[in-house]
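Margin note from the TA: students keep mixing up input and output lines. Inputs are the sequences; the output is the structure of the whole complex. Example:
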Amino acid sequence: MSTGHDTAAASPVKGGAAPGRPSGGGPTEQELKRRKRLSRRWQRDVRWSPYAFVSPFFLLFLAFGLFPLLYTGWASLHQVELTAPTDMNWVGMRNYTRIFDDEFFWNAAENTLTIGIISTVPQLLMAMGIAHILNYKLRASTFYRVAMLAPYATSIAAASLVFVLLFGRDYGMINWALGAVGIDNIDWQNDKWASQLAVSTIVIWRWTGYNALIYLAAMQAIPQDLYESAALDGASRWKQFFHVTLPSLRPTILFTVVVSTIGASQLFGEPLLFDANKGASGGSQHQFQTLGLYLYEQGWVNQHLGRASAIAWTMFLILIVIGIVNYVISRRLRASS
Amino acid sequence: MTTTLTKQPETASKRSRRPKAARAGGTLHAGPIAYAVLALFTIVSLFPLVWTAIAASRDNQRLAETPPPFWFGSNLFDNLDLAWNDANLGEAFINTTFVAGVSALTIVFLSTIAGFAFAKLRFKGRNAMMLIVIGTMMVPPQLSVIPLYMMVAKLDWSDQLQAVILPSLVSAFGVFFMRQYLLQALPDEIIEAARVDGASSWRVIWHVVFPAARPAMAVLGMLMFVQTWNDFLWPFLVLTQNGNPTVQVAVAGLGRGYTPDQSLIMAGALLGTLPLLIVFAIFGKQIVGGIMQGAVKG
């Protein structure tokens, strides 16, 4: 392909010089120089402009992505106060030992894990089911797709505030509906598991439709003949789903699992707003305080930015471990199929 | 990587699949159940939004009674008015429109030229760089907030909109999205032809790439607008409700009042969501298509 560009680079000089030029007689010396200059400029353009086109992304990423990420690691080795964020005192690993000794760190890590599971697993399973149905020939299919994307258009703040009301202990719609089938009022804010379920519900509500569309797109990319040969073998629709659809979706499933896992590890706005009076503590007993909230509490409530950096860096390392595990699993899957 | 970028074959294959599979499986009657499940899911998706409006049209006292209201009351416009003024929502709207607009336009522009380079130009290190781009998608931006906060403090940028705009411009997704689109939407021959005519790379971008990429640019612009409009953590850290808030900061501030008036909070939530819902109502089909195009990778 590079040769293709070389010829493309050479020809326009000739072609570009031809029109409007008096024919007959060889090119003057001046003209030859001009062509040479043009051709050099041309080669420079072809060679360097790709880098010019991709460089804004990388420069922005360096400035606002990579540099802050690495600097977080550096800051985590210092004492940094919120009130004077530019004064840094070296403390070595002390921030890390402090947070690892803090029961609330482990509490937050545990909550992040459990809320992550409660929110991700049902979300992706439901999304798969919905996508399967959407893949039928349907009337008004666009309407369903847009409707189930409405929660995605709703911000974390708006969604959380509505669900706080719906999950209200005394007057909430959900307890009222449960009461109608004989279940006593549940204290969605103060009970540990109930509150985690409620926070997860907000996440599930916002993201299920989005993931369903991603699965649907992948399902529509499955070659038709796979289904045809399965049907010829007498496979029922159900069997086709398990033996054709699911295996073909493996990469997509892995992708959504990774994205959801990253999202779950960063959960912040939903638990922050779920009990607005308790704010960063994530409930009166820290029962739904996530790592994201804990980071915010350490950094912006207790004003220890250095300690918050240590939390951020720990979360980053956890994500790297998840990434490696994911890579190993996907390689295994590829090897086995 | 598989991509479903052309819509035509997609629908065609969908159409032809159903009858065949149904005939072979002999389970044509799945219809009503499928519709029932979809209807239920649609209701669950839309109900909280409708109920936001219902609650916003009541007053605080009515929301502290059982059973909760199921239909609209008469306070909607009073509450919207109050929330608009109480929560600084007017300024927040202007701010957020500006932030989301600037950031979406910039991302679309930068992603298109970078996506074009990755899709259609050959250069040393291209594949490695593309892997880096994809890799950066896996790093959540939230982990970088502390140094960014320090930068903002140093530059004295708190409560200033550029503090929110600049970090939001990093969009690996945009680059990936435009690359996937241009790979199939822009034939190599057109670029070659423009080259033969003597067009420089910039001219190719303006006269060939941008026209070809327009549909994808529009979708990416909408997706980025939604994302920036709804962005929460970072604006929440550097902007204050009474200073120079975005809509999300202002709405979140409503819920943190000392004696919260729930109907007022709902009115604020409604105001903060409505613009995007209107966008979705108009361009829903295109946004759905865009998400489905951009998402499929493997």
